[in-house]
Fold these 4 entries.
Entry 1:
Amino acid sequence: MTFNMDGAGFSMPLGASLYGPPPYEFRDAEQVSVCFTADAQGLAALIPPGLEVADNPAQCEIRVCNYHWSTFGPFHESYALIRVRDSDGTLYWYLPLIFTDNEAPLAAGREIWGYPKKLATMTWDWGRSSDRVPSNELLHFDVERPRGTTLFSVTFMPERQADPAERHGLPVVSHRYIPPSQAGRPPAADELIMVAHPKTLQRDASGAVKLWAGQGSISINTRSEIDPWYLLEPISVTGGYWQVSDFALPAGQIIR
């Protein structure tokens, strides 16, 4: 029997693929977004050539996610977004930092779109008395890397039903960089990749969309040069949202 590329699968390892081709389906995707401003000069170190921070101070979001069901299985995720401008003036969200706790979405994210995913320990908790967070009105999300060292925490308290028009989406751009396999050669990949996909908000029993606004907060607990989330230290928090949605994550589009 000989090796057949046509039947070898979609991803590494060929013949025993870790994940299949996009689109990747997500159902009951629960997410909290905290909107804030941060120091544009410090964040410039995270932005690749061809893009620049669009605002001063920078407009940012940190999103924490509890994916109850997906093509990759259930997992948690946390990522940062910075509003940037392309050379032609087009606005995007740029994704410089992201954590997950599942092997398959880590590999797919890095290999397909260049999402700079790393593994971390994450806790999504509304405050059950059996856990270390006492019962209260707050969602509490911790990110530890390594386990026992909290890099940052996000909290959210819902206050009111939100109008979807309050949330203005932008395509997300990432930098797919794969270093050369041989010294002296150019990178195997060096691309800016844009992904734009709609999310369908779920509705509750009364027909209202599952989108709530409230008070969000971000606590940067550890200054780490290995995982420099401290560069996103908020100047001011401008909003917080909780939502539940369904969506499909497609392949990207190379813009540079």
Entry 2:
Amino acid sequence: MIGGVNMIDCVFRKGLLAKWRFSGIAIILIIAAQTGLAQVKTEVPPVVPGSKAVFVEHIKIHGAALEGNLENEAVDRDAIVFLPPSYYQNIKRRYPVLYALHGFSIGAEQWTHEIHVPQTIEGAFANGSQEMLVVLPDSKTVYGGSMYSSSVTTGDFEQFIARDVVTYVDAHYRTIPRRMSRGLAGHSMGGYGVARIGMKHPDVFSSLYIMSPCCLSPMGSRPPNPAMHQAMTSVEKELESVKTPADAARLSFFARAQLASAAAWSPDPKNPPLYFDLPRKDGEPQADVIAKWAANAPLAFIDQYIGNLRQYRAIAIDAGDADGLRFDTIKLHDVFEEYGIANSFDMYRGTHTSAVADRFQNHVIPFFSRNLCATENCK
């Protein structure tokens, strides 16, 4: 291991990885394969003896930032709130808050099963982590995910998370309503959301935990290999049948991933009924659309937000050593290192989803326990 990265990964970083370039659709196919096919293979950590039950509330949060979206996505969104065991014992006590973002193709409810909450929250508290609220907002869309981006087509999910959700929770629960007491974590598409939202909103959050993030790199221009080309062709044929958002229900995971990305990153209010543009049309790449997608890649725009990132109290990044997304995750860590931004990076044994519940209990919550301020004198 070198700085938490094994030697095989270092070889890729210095050699093969630099040569890997794919078209926009190919990248989305890879993302889809990594984020969707292993969702059920999540190991459950054992119950911690002596753990106390948390309180679970299912609520609706109105998304002012989502109003008027062209896709007719729900404006009143589901969210799940986990209140610590002591919440109703001392009604004057206030708590820090962790906001945890789910990945593509799932919503908040399925996210609870993948990270095995409330069990893992209870286990973290029993193991000594300070108590906090944990909030899981739902950002699933008709195509499977909002990408936590700003789009007239889906609505502004970036502002929904950073403003609407935080404002609602502070107004309805005994939180410590300051940035030093708020943390943001997420996995896969949620990890992308943490990177994107975190770079733009250091006034709202003070600590970030980026778990196996997708979609970090700009698109390349070289053609994919023959197998990938065949997959792309198959997806293009599927997409030709889509006339309304409802048609997406019968599509493959890969096709829905491309539609979700287009709705988030290449909205087009003058292109009904779907109101977005795809990166390929009639078998040919569309340079203007590809440029828009590339502009939404954190590794492309991170240099614009270095000053914001320096404001964070703590940043953590992790990925499994068998996760195909680990290469770009390493790149993100490298950028932080190059700019001298304090961060921790952990390459653990596992696939994209196999260890996510263990990570949440034994790494994510303890990280925020150490870094979120639990008193009202936070500055």
Entry 3:
Amino acid sequence: MNGAKSVFNSVRSFSTLAAISAIIISGLFILFNFGESLGWQVGLAVLALAIGIPHGAVDHLVALPATSKPKLALLILIYVAIAVLAVLAILHWNKLGFQLVLVMSAFHFGFGDAAFIAEQDRLTGRRRMKPKTQNAFAITSGAIPVLIPLLKDSTTSALREINPLLIDWASNIAPQLKFLIAFFFVTTLALLINEKRFKEVLDLIVLAALALVAPPLVAFAVYFGCWHAMRHTARLTLILPKAKSAAERNNPVGSFMSAVKPGLPALFGTIAVALVIAVIDTSNIDASYLWYLLVVVWALTVPHMLVTSKIDRSALN
């Protein structure tokens, strides 16, 4: 399993370096007083989101790895129907839909990250985190990148450009949310240090720095595309036959690309759908395009989370 081990180690290094790079880039833009300019934020966010979109497009291969075409067609139909309903719900109930997506995403991202680490531990023969540490890490690593960027004061101007209806998404509970996240952050760090899980300590510190330094659009997009999606794709190399075969031949690059290629059509489709919707909405096309791209990505997260919950539970148990 040296190939699989190499995939996990390389992806973890890449996600960490990508997040640190985004922190440095954001810091430089802020230092030279370009931090509030939406242009560079949209460009970087769209690029990062594009990197992450393919990771959920092979869910049909995960849910039904070997099945008949009618069953596969039915699964895809249901999957697309759920995503379409989610798009309509978010567009109709902007604030409520946004809040539900945030909660759902925090749990999905956090437990997905914990599952990635659990599988890496298994590949390297390392002792797993204790259940309470694992759960605390999952909650914290999901809440930080999803909620913290949206609780900053600088978020208001970005949300005003994208969708003003989302500005007061946290209403009067923002202080309580900040306290809870800080509590989980400190508690989780203590648990990780006690178990000598220093790589996971670094993960949380990098995620916190990304959430605090980078603008909210950049922070979420870089986390989604270069952290969560990359780590999820690494996990797919343990499931998809072609990726497993390449890993067994000690070809980590071939293994990873075998998990990426089936999702590329979804990337082009998502970009096209978001662009069509944005063109129809002719006001402020740069901001509206990013908004609709985010809506499509969030909507796809709903069926994606349902499909991947099974492999998450398997990895964590």
Entry 4:
Amino acid sequence: MVKSQIINHKSQTNYNSKIKNSKGFLGFGICLLFIVCNLVLGNWNLSFGEDKIIAIVNNDIITQKDLNDFINFTRIQLRQQYSGKELESRIQAMKLDLIQRLVEDKLILQEAKRLNIITDESRINARIDEIKSGYRTDLDYRNALKQQGLVQADLEKKIKEQFLMFNVIEYRIKSRIVVSPSEVTDFFNTHGNELQIPEQRDLEVISAGEDLSKATEAYNSLKDGAPLEEVVKKYAFLMDVMNAAERGQFRKEIEDVIYRLKPQEYSQPVKIDSNYYIFRCRSIVSPRAQNLIEAREKIYTYLFNKKMEEEMGRWLDELKKKSYVKIFQ
């Protein structure tokens, strides 16, 4: 499908040194002994390169390599949605609280291990296939991994960890959250005037290949009134339809074009990756207020996610309070 090529796929914790009971003291002692032994044996290096320890979480460590791998893994995933400066700006924004995120991930993975949570290997393979589909060839995919200092095993490990965290959160948090119909109705009665169906645009998209001169020639024919079907057939282009329901649904370079189009107007060829695309706006539906039936699902999702975020925060705070966490930078 043509449109699948252009759619987007959206405080440091300090250790409380007051040991409250013998179990906590014993856990701290084992952890400290574990760390000291490894330092003496030369397994860890607190100061240099990728072996540098940046955090300790109970009996696990987080190294500079873990931090680098996480950034590179995230870049591989975000590449399906963003590119160029926008991709790097999102990576930079993510770095602000990245160590805290790694600590929380480690705590969740430790909880998954304690609860004997497992994940389905087929889901891991499916996710890898999805990532691969964002590259033209298997060689491109492997080169992208190599550029980020990753190999297939690194990717599999990270994805497995993601699913383990998802499963433990599903078990401990998500499955216990309830949003009642009365909560949805109350929210609508209070905020109904803020809920609108945004402007919607019905569009045709023509994949015009890699030849700019050919794409421009086709655009000029269309602008002069040539029937769309005939032009597509003449140049052996591909055509699809899509609906733009809200901002952020498509890549920025696409939205910059389609939201300027008037009904029945064609865009000039737009280069996305290695291909050129021509867009035609078929119709525009103006925004309007939603009724309760139309807004119910969106309100439910908002309230559910709000409760989920609150419960996640409380749960992570509890895990941190009963854990040994030390951050070195």
